[in-house]
Amino acid sequence: MSRADAAKDFAIDYLASWSARNDIALDATAELYAPRVLFHGRTVSLERLYKEKQRFIRRWPEREYRPRPEAIGTDCNPAGTVCKVHAVFDYTAINPKRRRMSQGSGALQLILEFIGEKPVIVAEHSTLLTQTRRRTLASEGTSNE
What single string gives the DSSP state of each residue in 64-118? Predict the structure, then answer.
């Protein structure tokens, strides 16, 4: 498998990991990222990144990310040690306690560095392309919270 194909598969797996149960999504953080990451324009430690991901999960405990396979591109350096991945995805995020839903599409950019055969994220940036937020259909007073 080429590094470009490996980088594309990594991006798809990354989005799948953020669609998983919260404990699985957080556990994956240590495996997916380098010790220091350029995250949305700021260099952060893995510990700081983990805390940011925890806050995001608390805000949106139910998430589904669906990559658009035809909208994933990769560009690797000639040595194949660094690859940029651009991916467009659709998403749904729900907070049942707050009865909120956000859905739409986004663009993800990852810069991956290969350590042996294993890619890790050294930079991440994402942008919302479309977004709709609304209250969920649960009626008032039905929650046990």
Answer: EEEEEEEEEEEEE-TTSSEEEEEEEEEEEEEETTTTEEEEEEEEEEEEEEEETTE
